[in-house]
UniProtKB/TrEMBL annotation:
It comes from Maribrevibacterium harenarium. Residues 340-405 form the Lysidine-tRNA(Ile) synthetase C-terminal domain. The N-terminal region contains the highly conserved SGGXDS motif, predicted to be a P-loop motif involved in ATP binding. It catalyses: cytidine(34) in tRNA(Ile2) + L-lysine + ATP = lysidine(34) in tRNA(Ile2) + AMP + diphosphate + H(+). This is tRNA(Ile)-lysidine synthase. Keywords: ATP-binding, Cytoplasm, Ligase, Nucleotide-binding, tRNA processing. It comes from the Bacteria. Coiled coil: none annotated. GO terms for cellular component: cytoplasm. GO terms for biological process: tRNA modification.
Amino acid sequence: MSSVMLALDWQALSQTEGRVVIAYSGGLDSHVLLHLAATHLTGVAREHLRALHVNHQLSPNADSWQQHCEQVCADLGVAFRSERVTVSDQGSLELAARQARYQAFDLHLNAGDVLLQAHHANDQLETLLMRLERGTGLRGLGGIPATRQQGKWRIVRPLLIFSRSQLLEYAQCHNLDWVEDESNQETVYRRNLLRHEVVEKWQQFNPQIAGKVAQQAEQWQQDLSIHQRLVRRELEKFLAPDGSLSWSSLPESEPAFWMQQYLQGQDINVTQGQLQALVTMLASEADGMPECQIGQSVIRRFKGRIFVMSTLAEQPSLVTLTPHQWQEQVAFSICCDQSVQLGKRPEGIKLLLANGKHRPLKKWLQERQIPHWWREQLPYLFVNNELVAIGTLWQHPNWQGKVQWRDHGVLPWPYECQIID
């Protein structure tokens, strides 16, 4: 099948600065890709070509699959690496396995490396059907991208426009020997159900359907890149200097659309159901401060603007600061010229101000417009259990220490707040 071989730009891959790594499960698809790369890569790229097998330990056959993959690589003269992972039993098994797999990829891939994955047209069709079923936006209609950056390394999927039947033809032509994952037959998993009960029957009436949909998805991706460029230009009109989204400035009939674009710019993808629920929540309680957690991010409304930030599982550690030595915390670093204790936010106290008046801490935080997500994370400094400073925001008039602190950027500050000297 020369058409499959021509699908890869072997010359460009042979000139990549980093290594070419095959995500090799041992199945039909990845074996075809491995065979193609081993046959057609040249020069340093071929010498450094390696296969990475992730052993999910979910099947009683997992170890024999790993041994099979190692032997195939030995026969092809390709360096072999494997990584055992533990897949969480919480939530979706498919999602948990994917997360574990990508963690393994991160362990083995360096800056500039290219990971080749063997997704094909049938995978593209199944993905589009699943996204349509649960609700998706324009970006979701683009399906699986042919290439994308993953941190410091890049993913390339060269077989997306070819159907599984074409890969099977290639494998049989070259007498390839692959493993079959028995879980692929279990229709309890949504993707398998679509594959066996929908796609396979659909292909009986239209054998070319997978390839046609894959080609359409490729066109959608090209159109989407233009659309996104124009949308980003328009989105900037709704952004404050601190990068937050001005909720009140959004067109009345379009908050869901602009909210989705804003979140995608923060690498947060949501389903249509999640998006509508989020918009409804943010549009309610005009005087409140609603928030919602999605994955490892929290979306909050504050003073009519939308902020996205990381979740912090802990408050600052209770430690004693050594004079003139920086202490690292999750949200900030801090240094003091005296020995002080870094502690939690005290309750029910009043601050003595420079003018001699007292102000309740709670009221003071509100008046300084300190966002609520920072109020428990601020560096509260104590001497003999007495609060003497809050970073550089406040200092007891009778205490002569000098404090420095650096924001790590994990929690945003509204642009109105000038908080670090």
